């Protein structure tokens, strides 16, 4: 199976509970950024610049836990910044597991060694490594030689210790399909449990000449189509259809709300109009219709998974054919 049965059960029961309560909008994945500090300065990331400009202190452990409880999302993606720089990462992960949350712990792989050695693998914990190309290009995007080699070493170590491991690859204007094919083959050979893919998107504070327009993204992902059959992707087939221009979708940014040291970020992981002090305020005060309709010009080229994978789940739970397709896809191994 591509995803553990326990994750399926959590998501399905979560949808049913929310449907019974007649809630129109609810989060599936909390994007939790305990720190904006990072040990890299990647080309496509705005968080390190944000840290330098706004000097935000890390979230306290209590704030992190309260945010997970407040949002109620069954999945928590711990991201940043580099989460391994967060001093309370271990108690945070342990408490989230105790609260029965599924965790995706995102890392560049440079500091994961001690976590892998000290923390016990768990079926609800996945270590997610960011890899944007083969060695030369990945290290260039990360702005640090040796990053690729270290991430690979961490992946091998995590697999040996029995962790679930996935990777996330952002596709840029200059990404080469054949190179990505070699990367995915390498990761499959290392028995990585799942591959995620998304077009890199023009964050507000980052220069945009490295990002694909929506039209370019569709062409690039169509070119990559054969890879989606050959390698163990966990980007859903409905989302991949959207990336290949075969399906229209509307963003559901409330499906992946972001909590970081500055507050609850509105409207989404990528763009910021304002911060709220509580999750309830974020949900009540944000003009969701504006972003769901695509009326905001900043959304024009955006196709990122944090905006659209929640749309996939919502679509599937209202369409039995799509739900059956997702269920069969999850059972199939690549
Ligand atoms: S499409 Fe969605 S995820 Fe993308 S920038 Fe707009 S609101 Fe954010």
Order of helices and strands: HEHHEHEHEHHEHEHHHEEEHHHH
- What is the spatial order of strands in the main beta sheet? 6-5-4-3-2-1-7-8-9
Shape: globular
CATH architecture: Alpha-Beta Barrel
Name the poorly predicted regions: none
- Strand tally is 9
* Range of helix content: 40-55%
Average pLDDT figure: 93
CATH topology: TIM Barrel
Q: Which class do the helix and strand fractions yield?
A: alpha/beta
The named CATH superfamily: Aldolase class I
**Main sheet properties:** 9 strands, mixed
Structural Rg: 18 Å
CATH first level: Alpha Beta
Q: What report would you give on this structure?
A:
The chain is an alpha/beta fold. It has one domain: Aldolase class I (TIM Barrel, Alpha-Beta Barrel). Helix content is 44%, strand content 14%. The chain has helices spanning 5-20, 47-54, 61-71, 89-98, 112-118, 135-142, 147-161, 177-189, 214-223, 225-230, 237-243, 279-285, 288-292, 305-317, 320-331, and strands at residues 29-32, 75-78, 102-107, 125-130, 164-171, 194-199, 258-260, 263-267, 272-276. The longest helix is centred in the first third of the chain and has 16 residues, at 5-20. The protein is globular and about 45 Å long. The structure holds iron/sulfur cluster.
Produce the secondary structure layout.
Layout: H1 5-20, E1 29-32, H2 47-54, H3 61-71, E2 75-78, H4 89-98, E3 102-107, H5 112-118, E4 125-130, H6 135-142, H7 147-161, E5 164-171, H8 177-189, E6 194-199, H9 214-223, H10 225-230, H11 237-243, E7 258-260, E8 263-267, E9 272-276, H12 279-285, H13 288-292, H14 305-317, H15 320-331
Parallel strand pairs: 1-2, 1-7, 2-3, 3-4, 4-5, 5-6
Antiparallel strand pairs: 7-8, 8-9
Helix pairs in contact: 3-4, 5-7, 14-15
Bound molecules: iron/sulfur cluster.
Iron/sulfur cluster is lined by residues 251, 253, 267-268, 270-271, 291, 298-299, 302, 304, 306-307.
């Amino acid at each position: 199976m591509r995803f553990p049965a326990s994750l399926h059960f959590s998501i399905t029961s979560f949808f049913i509970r929310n449907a019974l309560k007649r809630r129109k909008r609810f989060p599936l994945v909390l994007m939790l950024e305990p720190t904006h500090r990072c040990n890299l300065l990647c080309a496509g990331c705005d968080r390190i610049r944000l840290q330098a400009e706004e000097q935000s202190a890390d979230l306290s452990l209590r704030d992190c836990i309260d945010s997970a409880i407040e949002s109620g999302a069954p999945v928590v993606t711990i991201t940043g910044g580099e989460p391994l720089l967060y001093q309370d990462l271990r108690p945070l992960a342990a408490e989230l597991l105790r609260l029965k949350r599924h965790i995706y712990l995102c890392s560049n792989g440079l500091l994961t060694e001690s976590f892998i050695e000290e923390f016990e693998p768990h079926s609800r914990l996945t270590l997610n490594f960011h890899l944007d190309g083969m060695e030369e290009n990945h290290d260039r995007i990360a702005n640090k030689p040796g990053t690729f080699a270290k991430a690979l070493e961490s992946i091998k170590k995590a697999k040996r210790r029995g962790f679930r491991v996935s990777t996330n690859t952002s596709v840029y204007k200059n990404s080469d399909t054949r190179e990505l094919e070699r990367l995915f083959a390498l990761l499959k050979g290392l028995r990585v449990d799942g591959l995620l893919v998304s077009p890199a998107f023009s964050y507000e504070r980052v220069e945009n000449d490295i990002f694909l327009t929506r039209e370019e993204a569709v062409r690039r992902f169509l070119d990559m189509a054969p890879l989606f059959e050959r390698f163990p992707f966990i980007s859903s087939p409905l989302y991949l259809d959207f990336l290949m221009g075969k399906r229209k979708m509307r963003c559901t940014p409330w499906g992946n709300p972001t909590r970081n040291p500055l507050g609850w970020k509105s409207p989404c992981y990528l763009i910021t109009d304002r911060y709220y002090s509580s999750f309830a305020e974020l949900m009540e005060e944000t003009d969701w219709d504006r972003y769901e309709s695509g009326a905001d010009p900043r959304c024009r080229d955006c196709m990122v998974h944090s905006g659209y994978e929640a749309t996939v789940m919502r679509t599937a739970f209202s369409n039995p054919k799509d739900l059956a397709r997702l269920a069969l896809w999850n059972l199939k191994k690549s």
